[in-house]
Amino acid sequence: MSSIQDIKQRFGIIGSATELDRAISKAIRVAPTDISVMVSGESGTGKEVIPKIIHQMSSRKHGPYIAVNCGAIPEGTIDSELFGHEKGSFTGADKTRSGRFETSSGGTLFLDEIGDMPLSLQSKLLRAIEGRSIQRVGGDKDIKIDLRLICATHQNIESYVDEGKFRADLFFRINVFPIVVPNLAERAVDIPDIINFMLKELKSRGEEVPNFDQSAMQELGRYNWP
C-alpha cells in the first residue's frame, strides 16, 4: 500500500498538517472497498483530490472516473445529465443519450456539491444507489450500473436535512464513510511550504518574486483565512 508521502508526491499535495494527513490516510484506507464516501470541507480546500486518490488506489482504477458538479448544471437538465434520456423524451432530444451513471459504470462517479441537488431528484438518486440501476428520462427500462459513488459538499448537509432541503435517507446512504478536508486556517503550519512552492512557480516563469521574512510568515499563520 502507498504511504501518505507517496500519495502527496503523486497528486501534488503540499503540506504535513495532522488534519491533512488524516484525510489522506482515510482515503487510502477506504479505497480498496466499494463503500460510499462523503468528502466535506470549505470551498477551495481541494476536496476534488480525495476522490481521485480513492479511484486511483481502488480496483476500479482502470475504469472511467467521471466528476459532475451538481451546482453547475441547470435544474431542468441535471436529470438528463445524470441518468440520460431516450430519443423524443423532451424537446430537443433528437437521439438517445447515456447519462453519467451509465458512462461511469465500472469506475467511479464523483458528485461534487451534492447539497445543490434539487430535492425532486434526490429520490431518483436514492433509488439508483439502492437498486444499482437507473432509468433514462422518458424510458421504462431498468439499466444496471456498477460504480463507486463519492460525493462532496461545502455545505452542512445535516442542517439541510433538519430544514427539509435534503432527504435524510439519502444522506445516510452517501455518508457511510465521511472524510473532512481541513481549511487553510486549520493547517497554518503548511503556509510556508505553500508560499515557497508558489514563489518557485513564479520564479520559473521569469517573474519577480517578493521575499517573506519571519514576521510576515507569522502574520500569515495567524490570519483566519475566511
Summarize the structure.
The chain is α/β, with parallel strands linked by helices and 226 residues long. The chain has helices at 4-11, 18-30, 49-56, 78-83, 100-103, 119-131, 157-162, 168-174, 191-204, 214-222, and strands at residues 37-40, 65-69, 108-112, 133-134, 143-144, 148-153, 177-180.
Q: Quick one: overall form?
A: elongated
* Largest sheet geometry: 5 strands, parallel
Based on secondary structure, the structural category is alpha/beta
Helices, by number, come to 10
Strand content: 5-15%
Q: What is the radius of gyration computed over CA atoms, rounded to a whole number of angstroms? A: 20 Å
Query: Helicity range of the residues?
Result: 25-40%
Q: Helix-strand pattern, N to C? A: HHEHEHHEHEEEHHEHH
Mean pLDDT across every amino acid position: 93
DSSP E strands, number: 7
Report, as a whole number of angstroms, the end-to-end distance. 36 Å
Question: What report would you give on this structure?
Answer:
With 226 residues, the chain is α/β, with parallel strands linked by helices. Helix content is 39%, strand content 12%. It has ten helices and seven strands. The strands form two sheets. The chain has a five-stranded parallel sheet with strand order 2-3-6-1-7. The protein has a two-stranded antiparallel ribbon with strand order 4-5. A hairpin with an 8-residue loop joins strand 4 (133-134) and strand 5 (143-144). Helix 2 packs parallel to helix 3. The chain is elongated, with a radius of gyration of 20 Å. The two termini are 36 Å apart.
List the helices and strands and how they pair.
Elements: H1 4-11, H2 18-30, E1 37-40, H3 49-56, E2 65-69, H4 78-83, H5 100-103, E3 108-112, H6 119-131, E4 133-134, E5 143-144, E6 148-153, H7 157-162, H8 168-174, E7 177-180, H9 191-204, H10 214-222
Parallel strand pairs: 1-6, 1-7, 2-3, 3-6
Antiparallel strand pairs: 4-5
Helix pairs in contact: 2-3
